[in-house]
Amino acid sequence: MNYNRLGKTDIKVSEIGFGAWAIALDWWGKKIEEDEAKRMLKKAYDLGINFFETGDMYGKGKSERLIGEVFEGMRDEVVISTKYGYDFEGVDQIGHSELPQKFDAEFTKKALKNSLERLRTDRLDMYGLHNPKLAHIRDDSIFDVLDGFVSDEVITTYQVALGPAIGWTQEGMEAMERQNLGAVQTVYNILEQTPGNELMKKAEERNVGVLVRVPEASGILTGKVNADTKIDEKDHRSVRKGEWIKASLKKVEQLRPIAERNGLGITELAIKFITTKKGFASVFPTMISEEEIADYSAMSEGRYISASDMAEIEELYNTWPAYELKATPQAG
Fold it and tell me: Are strands 12-14 and 3-5 parallel, antiparallel or unpaired?
């Protein structure tokens, strides 16, 4: 397993990280029972994954609790990051509709206290804003509280997780101006490089780490989703429409010669494309079994994509039609 420095911090994170939302929510076609979730966390650690990224809203604290139980007494051996911003108490977590958001000082302090208790620790390597809007990014009072946590050594750094959909360019660019920000997190993959390429360029300049989610393009790059796939409405991938799937499959065929000349499958090419990028810190494949954890971990073995092949991928990408990006309305 290879490790990268997380932005301007001294934290070293595995380039394959464990995004722990799927162990608490059945949004990826599988409900993972707690015993299996704990085995998955242990398997990841045994294979060299040291970076566990979660959020308090995942299963209303369930994901955090599982991480806390598995790694109790091992605090110095793992890097733990969680996020806050959704007021999920007293609200049913149904489907993928966004819950009410809060980032005020009182809510933030309470959220951090609750997360620390569930994670069974007195400190976090990283805390994060979960899908903030542009007004939140520009609100100094929010970051004053987070900077206070850094000064008090309750957290080492903080991140801004951009989303929920792909886009949010301005939010990411402005967030990187914050002094103690260690990372931004975004949807990014070989088929959907906008705005990730722009964010990574600035991240390199600002010494910020980019954390990548949805690297498999919702299953297109793993072969789990094809033109005949029927996706349940509860599944997180249900936002992907048939036209997008068909167009994406054609793009995959254009990429296949590059993968084959490197002795790689499409999934491996997709992951190595990300890990080769400058500004990148860690990628969170959606992993729902111990076997998938082993497969993805094996992709961090030191080989990267050559500059000429990266240039060819860029040229291909530039021939593909642009797609719709989401953002806070006032971002313009």
Answer: antiparallel
Give the total residue count for the chain.
332
Residues forming a β-bridge with 208: none
Round to whole Å and give the CA distance between 69 and 67: 5
CA distance 296 to 16: 7
- Which among 13, 115, 121, 142 has a CA at the least distance from the CA of 57? 115
Pure H helices in 152-265: 169-175, 196-206, 242-261
Give the CA dihedral 281, 285, 289, 294, nearest 10 degrees. Answer: -50
At 22-41, the pLDDT tens digits run 898 876 567 899 999 999 99
Phi-psi region of 160 (alpha: psi -120 to 50; beta: other; left: phi over 0): beta
Separation of alpha carbons 154 and 111, rounded Å: 13
- Compute the distance between CA of residue 147 and CA of residue 92 in angstroms, rounded to an integer: 32
Phi then psi for residue 161, to 5 deg, are -90, 110
Q: What is the pLDDT of residues 150-196, one digit of tens each?
A: 999 999 999 999 999 899 999 999 999 999 999 999 999 999 999 99
Residues of the chain with pLDDT under 70: 27-29, 91-97, 225-241, 330-332
Q: What is the pTM of this model?
A: 0.92
Using DSSP, state whether 151 is helix, strand or coil: helix
Distance between CA atoms of residues 98 and 105, nearest Å = 21
What DSSP element (H or E) covers 146? helix 140-151
- For residue 235 the two structure tokens come to 């599944």
Peptide bond into 195 cis (omega under 30): yes
Nearest C-alpha neighbor of 210 from the set 16, 51, 7? 7
Contact 186, 283 (CB under 8 A): no
